[in-house]
Structure formats: C-alpha cells, structure tokens
Amino acid sequence: MAGNGSASKSSAGAIPRQRKQLPATRPPGAPPDPWTVFATIPEQPPSRISRALRTARRSLIHEYALVIYAGCLLAVLMTWPTLRYPMHTLPQDLADPARQAWQIAWAGHILSSDPIRLWHSNAYYPEPLSFGFGDSLLGYAPFAMLGDGPLAAVLRYNILFVVAHALLAIGTYALVRQLGARPIGSAAAAIAVACAPWRLAQEGHLDVISAGGIPLALAMLARGHGYSLRHGFRPARRHVGWAAAGWAVAVWQVSLGFSLGVPFAYVLGLILVVLLVASIVHGAVHDGRLALHRFLRGKHDSLLGWRLVATDTLGATIFAGVALLIAVPYALVPESGSRLEEIRFFSPPLRGLLIGPAESRVWGAAHVVPRSSLGWAGEMSLLPGFVLYALALTGLFFSIWRLRHRLLLFLGLAVTVVLTLGTTFFGGRWTYLPLFGHFPASFDLRIPGRLMFWVTLILAVLAAGAVDDFVRRAEHLAELRMPPWPGPWMRTAMLAPVILIGLEGWNATAHPVVPAQPAAMRTVTGPLLVLPTAEISDQMVQLWSTSRFEPMANGGGTFAAARQSELRTRVASFPDMPSVEYLRSIGISTVLLLRAEVVGTPWERAGDVPVDALGIQREDLPDAVVFRLSRSSTASPQPSGPQPAPSTGTQPGIGISPQPGLGVSPQPGGSPQPTLGSSISPTPGLGTGTGRLQPVNAPASPGTLSPADPGAAGTTPRISFDSSEPVRP
Predict the structure, then answer these.
(1) Looking at residue 292, what is its pLDDT?
(2) What are the TM regions of this chain, as residue ranges (predicted)?
(3) What is the model's pLDDT at position 695?
C-alpha cells in the first residue's frame, strides 16, 4: 500500500515532457513556406477593360434595361404593321400623318439652314407664322436633320411613331415603380396606358400619341425628391440630378405641342404648390425657430434641401420660359372660328367613356351602334379598357396603396373625368372653360377628350395597386407549400391581368400606301400652287414639298380655313383671267397641275385649255402641266428652298423613276391627257401613270425642248425623250 502511494505521488508530481518547438525561421537555402507566400500575395485590382465589361454586363441586364427592351418590343407589336414598310405607308390615313411628317421635316431643315424663318413655313403661302398652325412637334426637330425628301420624312415619322409608344410604356413603368409598385404591377400600368383602346382613334395625331415625356418626367421628379406613395418623402434618397433630368424631360415634352403641354403645365404647377405647402407645414410642425437654419444647412430632417429648392426654381423658370417663347407665335396667329363653339362640338358625353373606337380590333365592330350616336366618334370614343376599369375598381378596396392615397387617387379621377367631359358637365362653366377656354384656338385645346390621358394614368395607378396586392397574396400563399415558390399555374394567374390589358389594345389601324412624289415637285420653283387643291389632299402635297421646301399656297387641315377656302374658290376655274390675276396678286408665279389627280375635280380639263391669251406659259411634263404666270416684264421671284442638283443630261422632271408599286394611279384609259399639238403614248409602268413619252412629228433632237411656233395659237412646247424601251402605238 505504501509502495502504491509513493508511486502515485511520484506520478502526480512528474513534469510533462515538453514538445520540441519548431524553428521560427526556415533554414538557410530552404524554399519559402507556400502558405505564407499565398497569404501575402496582394489581390490584383481589375483592369479598366475588366471594369468596363463588368459595368456593361450589369447595365445590359439591369431592370430598366430589360424594361427598355420590353417597351420597344411591345411598341413594335402594338403598332404593327407600321415597321413592315416604314418608307411607304403611314398609320391610319394620309391626312394628318402626312402633314405632321412635313412639320418635323420642316423644323429640321430650317433650324439647320435659316432658324430665323422657323415659324414662316413654306406652306400656306403667303400666310405668316404658318408653322404655328397646330402643334409644332418642335422637340422632334433634331431627328429631322438627317435625310431629306418624302421617303425620309415618312421613314422618320414611322420610327418616331413607334418610339412614342415605347417611351410612354417605359415612362409609365418608371413612374408606377417609383411610387412603390412591384414589377408586375408596374408592367400592368404601363401596358394599360400605352395600349388603351381610346388611343387607337388618335393614331393619326403624333402630337397626342407623344405623351411619354409626361410620366417619365414625373417619375424622375419623384425620384429626385425621394418620394413614393408607400414610403413618403425620404430625405436620404433625394438626388438633385434626377430632379434636373425630370425638368429637362418636361421642357422637351412641352416643346412637342400645347394640346398635352398645357394640362401638363397645370399638373406641374399643382405639384409645386403642394411641395411649397408641405414644406411650410413640415417646418411649422418642427421647431419653427430652427426651420430656416435646417433649410439653409440642408439637414436630413427637412423636407427639401436648398439644392432641390434651387433646382425646382430653376427648372420651373426654364419650363415656363420655353413654353412662353413657343407660345408667342401661336398667340399671333389669327383666330379662325369660335373657340367656345368648337369646344362644345367636341365635348364627349359620359357614355363615350364606355365606347371603343373603330380602330380597335376587339371593340371596333362590337360598338358600331353606340359609336354612331356620338357627334364626332373619333374624338368621343374614349374607352380606356374594361379590364382596366375592373382592376381600378378592385384597387379601391384591395391595394398596396394606403387608404388616404386611394381616396386622393379617386378624387383625382373624378376631377379628370369632369374635365374630359368638357361642356357636357354643366356647360363647363366652372370646369373646363376657366382652365382651357381662354387659350387661342391655335393651342389646339378645343378637344376636351384628349384629357383622357390623365384619366387613364390614374386608373393605371389604381390598377397597379390591385395587381400588386394580388401578387403579394399569391407569394404569401406559395410560402405555405413545398417548394415555397409559385408554380406555373400561379405564375400564369399573376400575369393574366397584364395579358388581358394588352389584348384590349389590339389594333386594326389602317396603313395606306403613300403615293409617290411627282417628279415635277423636285424641279418646279415657287411660289407655286399645286392643283388639285383640297383640305385633305393638300396635306400630301405638303409632304411632297419636303425635297426643296418651295413656297406654296397649298396647306391642308382646318388651319387658315377662311383664306384656304377663298383660295380654292377663286382658282376653281383656272386657267382663266380672274384666277390668274388672283394668283398673281398673292405672289404665286407657278401653277403645277398633277395629271393623275385631277380626274373628277374642277381642273380635269385645265391641261387642255389654250393659255396664250392669258399671258402665261405652259410646259407639259409626263406627270404634270406647269403654268408660269410671271409676265415677261416681271422678274420671277427667287425660290427660297435649295436649288436643284446640277443636270446630268436628263431633262428636268423626266427620267426620275417613282417607287415601284407606290405611285398614283393613272387616269382612266391608262394614259395621261394629250397636250395640244402632239399625241403621246405611255410605256408600261409599275403602278404609276408617268412612263416615257414620244411625241409625234417632234423636230427636236432627243432630250431637248422644242419651242412652240409663235404664230400658231394654242400650241405648246413639244418634248421628246430618248428611251431604250419600245414605245407602244
């Protein structure tokens, strides 16, 4: 026992054996420790190329990049077949689209050559400020500085037409997303606004279609002020750059025209008043003695910092200055008709908000009978979509928006509907007329139904709240199952509102072929009058004039109606002495008679009437007859447009082939009217009535002009043309 005790004692008091320590340094000549080397290698910074590629990759798949792709694709589909033949067709008709294509082309041409003459266009000669007849679309002028002629003008118009739809969808998505909606709700709102059925009746008015700058500017301003419906003002999210960009977009939007620009200006003014009142109330609620101190120092607990206040002040000043500068020529345009009578005529009834336009593939045929009860169906068929109505109504009760916001949206909806009805709502004495009735007629505010844009936008915000609430509930339901994400049927159900809204905007818009420009329009100098002249056909003549922009008396639409009506009445008997003297009195030196267009008009025989006794000259061209009214003692006025290109050996006006299949139809019988003293026969053409002509007994050599015998009354110059094609007898 004692031995055991001593043994245990010795074992308990034993000192443990120390392990041999590793050397702190490696022996000389030994390689470095690989782990130490790995840990001390510094991370190489990415090169500039790598950083650029990484940034580009992130930007290409960013949410708003995907929105831009989707918006452009949606615009192409919803306007199809606009881009199928973009150089040869126009959407809806050949009236207003042709005139607006000329407007854009004129703005680009004159701003790059003679900006002082911007408002004195080549049409409606000799009327001053003729560019102020209707919305100017001045904001599109930079796009018109590339290309010239009718083909370029038509292509430019069609591209801008599609881009306008894309910009509206993108801008609405950005606005609703900034207000606090999710991507699906924002997409539903964007499609609801861009594809609203009532907009299909406005496809011929690019100034009404081009509303994308409004929601985009509002989205940028809201982002710059750090505001959303779900979170209110968040000072940490304020950004002066976004606010400045929003004001820049607003200035561009008002430069497109006042039919949308004036209501937009009212909305911006209301927003500024609300911001001012909110800032005062916010400062009063907090310590009033320190409010000025916080404002000047830009503390984060203040509603607006001094940078945002300065940006808003400068932006609003520039906006008002640009609007007033553009408004000056419009204010100087003479009045035509009674504004009040036109507003009453175009004011829609309340049932118009339930009637779809004829251009709607879904509701066009179904609403033929109710649409026939409207006074002017094109401006009174204001259906924004029944699916949108249902979603907006649901959004009043089930929504991601707070109750007070829903009540404010409902109040705004009621106000905009009342304004859209114009004088239908108690004569408009306290609604539409005080706000818009005092503007000149040239501001084009005589159609209250175009305020339907604001009704649609508010409905879309309410609908987005309902769609988002449905998506939120669906995701919550999916979290209770395995796997915890929505299945294919649930995803389809979440996308169903978006699909249904898009289907209601399916268009049946016509896309007529643009007639080819007559060859004589590229060579005749002005001031001129093109016959036949009428309110509709003159708009196509304006488009044809984009090659050289020669001054001409033609001008379509309802602008300068009294003067244009007098012109058409006075020249109905042309060529005779009263009409010639009248044209000379207004400065017209050339009359161009288009052979293919005069059938069924008062000028059907004008090309066959002897003109020697009238003291004018006549020149026969394959597709036209040119009458020169200048007396021999009077110098011809200098053309204001660019001079024709140097001759290449071809007779001016001849040998320029029109577009195949797109020319104007020939006269009955398949040939132009023969001129006095010669017989002509056309060669086969491709959809045109021009062809090549071979006169009988023409003494002139090929390609030359033979003067008429001065002793023979009623004779005209004879033209001979060399052609490699056989001439039919």
Answers:
(1) 55
(2) 64-83, 155-176, 240-258, 264-285, 306-332, 382-401, 408-431, 451-471
(3) 36
Predicted pLDDT at 278:
85
What is the C-alpha separation between 82 and 92, in angstroms, rounded? 10
Which tokens sit at 537?
Answer: 């056909």
Assess if residue 624 is contained within a domain: no
**Two tokens at 420?**
């859209």
* Secondary structure tally for the chain: helices H, strands E: 24, 8
Residue 12: the pLDDT is 56
Coil, strand, or helix at residue 697?
Answer: coil
**For residue 282, what are its two tokens?**
């916010």
Instruction: Identify the CA nearest to 340 among candidates 449, 431, 428, 452.
Output: 428
Residue 390 tokens read as 């249902």
Domain that holds residue 299: 60-87+149-504
On the CB side of 588, how many CA atoms lie within 13 Å of its CA? 25
The pTM (predicted TM-score) of the whole model is 0.79
The total of structural domains in the chain comes to: 1
Tens-place pLDDT, residues 338-352? 678 889 999 999 999
Other CB atoms closer than 10 Å to residue 335's CB: what's the count? Answer: 9
CB 370 within 8 A of CB 356: no
- DSSP-based three-state secondary structure for 386: helix
367 domain residue, yes or no: yes
Q: How many Å separate Cα 259 from the centre of its chain?
A: 13
Distance of CA 431 to the CA centre of its chain: 28
- Residue 486 CA to residue 1 CA, distance in Å, equals 79
Q: Give the whole-angstrom CA distance, residue 695 versus residue 91.
A: 41
Q: Which of 442, 452, 441 is nearest to 419 (CA)?
A: 452
**What pLDDT sits at residue 13?**
59
> Does residue 197 contact residue 149 with C-beta atoms inside 8 Å?
no
Within a domain: 518? no
Distance CA 424, CA 432 (A): 10
Residue 627 has φ and ψ, to the nearest 5°, of: -110, 125
Question: For 592, which DSSP code?
Answer: E
Distance between CA 724 and CA 727 in Å, rounded?
A: 9
Contact present, 144 and 157 (Cβ < 8 Å): no
How many other β-carbons are positioned within 10 Å of the β-carbon of residue 641? 17
- The reply to whether 626 falls in a domain is no
pLDDT of residue 687: 36
Please check whether residue 463 is in contact with residue 189, taking contact to mean a CB–CB distance below 8 angstroms.
yes
Residue 717: burial class (beta carbons within 10 Å; 0-12, 13-18, 19+): middle
What contacts 573, CB < 8 A, 6 or more positions away?
A: 579, 602
Q: Which segments of the chain have a pLDDT < 50? A: 1, 300, 632-729
Give Rg (Cα) of the chain: 36
Q: How far is CA 254 from the centre of its chain?
A: 12
Angle at 654 between CA 648 and CA 657, to 5 degrees: 95
Q: DSSP 3-state helix, strand, coil percentages of the chain (rounded to 5)?
A: 55, 5, 45
DSSP, residue by residue, 39-86 = HHPPPPPPPHHHHHHHHHHHHHTSHHHHHHHHHHHHHHHHTTTTTTST
